[in-house]
Amino acid sequence: MGRTEHSRYGLKGPNCCCVTLRLPMKIVLSSLNFSPELTGIGKYSGEMADGLVDRGHEVVVVCAPPYYPHWRVGAGYGGLRYSVERPRPGLTVIRCPLWVPASPTAIKRVLHLLSFMLSSLPVMLALVAWRPALVFAVAPAFFCAPTAWLTARLAGAKAWLHIQDFELDAAFEMGLLQGGWTRRLFATAERFLLRRFDQVSTISRRMLRKLAYKGVPLDRGQLLPNWVDLRAIHPVAAGPGSSAMRQSLQVGDDQLVFLFSGSMNRKQGLPVLFEAMDLLGHREDLVLVLCGDGELREQVAAAAQGRLQVRVLPLQPADRLNELLNMADVHLLPQMANAADLVMPSKLSGMLASGRPVVAAALPGTEIARVVRDCGLLVQPECAADFARAMAALADDAQERIRLGGNARRYAERALGFDSLLAHTEACLLHTVAQTDAVTASDSGLPSAAVPG
Fold first, then answer.
1. 3-state helix, strand, coil in the chain (%, to 5)
2. Which of 96, 109, 197, 371 sits at a 20 to 30 Å CA gap from 10?
3. Residue 239 within any structural domain of the chain
């Protein structure tokens, strides 16, 4: 890029994502999951879209109706029809039909993703006429990446793929997909497609290195970590009667709460927490609270039956999230061993921001281990004895809980703040678009063909 283009877009150098001048971009955001989902990718995609609109950009989101983590379409939404929402000026949300299996097996998950890929295809292609400057696709679902890339190329836009977790690798490691030749076929297709995008980003340093291993050139890889709203999630001093939620769960003032909060699915490795509590059965001062929803919700509730020191809560609304996270004396982050470094749990940012220590299942050298090492205790994945020892150690050392919790909050303030990370994301997007002088004023409405009749 020449000197004039850098001046126009406010870029301070050819390899810098710092932007001092923002011109409005037209952005297509392709994300299977979106607001009002409260957890995971839907939460972050929704916050990103709102944040970019706040900064003057025009965003069209192509997504499915909300269904996660409950695995059923949300009330008031239809899974078999297209719909358009305009919740605020500058933001248009186009929801496409989606098949949602009640009990997601491997083949049903594939069909589930294919249903969105097929239903969103005509919408994405119709948006070519809108002439976006950038097409930003979020994976999962990787199935939708080819459509996003094609839309960008036809529109003369930049193509950006953002990877929240390596879903194909995780599916094979966890046994959801099997077969050596099948894995080689998927890996070849993935490698080919990754190299077609102008930029590929992910949420941790280790995952960024994995992108390089998969063939993404270093100059096309970006680190875009997940954020947390530090104003919404903040430490609240604990004390007798300080939490109505603790009281509603009949947790005594002399008991300590070990909290798991998030999606209840296979890769979480939740059985280890029940096994750890069985090993700690003599400790009446410890209470395990599991909060969330997902494919294993019924199994979790059944396992809690008869265990007097285990409580199960449904997924909590956003306005109670801070109370929920502060109810914990210690957060728990289990994970299956074969999912290490293939995902970076989004729930971790809220745990750290709440100023509570974390007991995390992570192998040495992984990104989770790097983040948690000064904010909690690390244990072997799927090892109940390790979990039990770590939980007992923190239960018996109030000063260590305070020290590690303080470290956790300071880390969140330093590295995970929403405002700074969104500004970084916007700067990187602007820099990429500016390389082809693709930013244009938002001077046209959506083509009527964007939503199939």
1. 45, 15, 40
2. 197
3. no
Strand ranges (DSSP E) for 295-419?
310-313, 330-333, 358-361, 376-379
Beta partners for residue 361, in sequence order: 379
- Residue 358 — φ and ψ, nearest 5°? -125, 135
Would 250 be classed as within a structural domain?
yes
User: How far is the CA of 203 from the CAs of 64, 138, 168, 178, 221, in angstroms?
Assistant: 23, 12, 16, 26, 11
Strands 26-30 and 58-63 come out as parallel
232 is a domain residue: no
This prediction has a pTM of 0.85
Residue 283 counted as domain residue: yes
Q: Tens of pLDDT along the chain (453 residues)?
A: 433 333 333 334 334 455 445 679 999 999 999 999 988 899 999 999 999 999 999 999 999 999 998 889 999 998 899 999 999 999 999 999 999 998 888 788 889 999 999 999 999 999 999 999 999 999 987 888 999 999 999 999 999 999 998 877 766 666 666 667 777 887 788 888 999 999 999 998 888 998 998 889 888 999 999 999 999 999 987 654 457 888 899 999 899 999 999 888 877 889 999 999 999 989 999 999 999 988 888 999 999 998 999 999 999 999 999 999 999 999 999 988 766 555 678 899 999 999 999 999 998 888 899 999 999 999 999 999 999 999 999 999 999 999 999 999 999 999 999 999 999 999 999 999 988 644 444 444 555 556 554
Beta pairing, strands 286-291 & 199-202: unpaired
| The total number of structural domains that make up the chain | 2
Identify the CA nearest to 199 among candidates 162, 165, 145: 162
Phi, psi at residue 236, to the nearest 5°? -120, 130
Residue pointed to by tokens 């050819």: 14
Do 292 and 389 fall within a single domain? yes
Owning domain of residue 217: 3-227+417-444
